Amino acid sequence: MAADLAELIAATAQGDQRAFEELYQATSPTLYALAMAVLRNADHAQEVLQEAYINIWRSAASYSADKGSVQIWLNVIVRRRCIDRLRHAPAPTDELSLMDWSAIEAQEPSPLQLVQADADAADLARCMQGLGAPQQRALSLAYFHGLTHRELAKKLKLPLGSVKSQVRRGLENLRRCLHHATV
């Protein structure tokens, strides 16, 4: 195979496109695997491989068997292209910018907000307990389990209008209870 590659690179140096195609067919899987191992990105590996083969076409005459096998020479070309790509790539996006941190901090509730949320949850639980069983079940299924009014009617085996009334009355009773809890 090494002799074949040497013949193909010599023919490529003479401008033989068919030899270059054969060289590509014989070596591209190995060179692509090398680029993937270094870059860990299929698109970048493909681009580097394309650039490398353009370089190989243009500089095939500079290959010297004294410096090593054709495969090693090709590997060096691809490896150098990969290193160039990594050097000129933008900084990794794993690190968050200061703007990202401020957005995250703005989303985090303050200790006061956490205490208030706990109090609100306790008030809601107390008010839910004060509802009648049909309203409690309808609201729980609608808002905590995400069922639509139609799904509620089917699950509770009630007419759609009755389910809508239970949900509406339950919400009104909750609103009144929660209003009294905050006053």
From TrEMBL:
PANTHER family: RNA POLYMERASE ECF-TYPE SIGMA FACTO (PTHR43133), RNA POLYMERASE SIGMA FACTOR SIGZ (PTHR43133:SF62)
Matching Pfam families: Sigma70_r2 (PF04542), Sigma70_r4_2 (PF08281)
GO MF entry, a single one: DNA binding
Top-level taxon of origin: Bacteria
Protein name: RNA polymerase sigma-70 factor (ECF subfamily)
NCBIfam families cross-referenced by the UniProt entry: sigma70-ECF
Domain RNA polymerase sigma-70 region residue range list: 23-88
SUPFAM superfamilies recorded: Sigma2 domain of RNA polymerase sigma factors, Sigma3 and sigma4 domains of RNA polymerase sigma factors
GO biological process, one term: DNA-templated transcription initiation
Residues in RNA polymerase sigma factor 70 region 4 type domain copies: 123-174
Alphabetical keyword list: Sigma factor, Transcription, Transcription regulation
Entry-linked InterPro entries: RNA_pol_sigma-70-like (IPR039425), RNA_pol_sigma-70_dom (IPR014284), RNA_pol_sigma70_r2 (IPR007627), RNA_pol_sigma70_r4_t2 (IPR013249), RNA_pol_sigma_r2 (IPR013325), RNA_pol_sigma_r3/r4-like (IPR013324), WH-like_DNA-bd_sf (IPR036388)
Protein family membership: Belongs to the sigma-70 factor family. ECF subfamily.
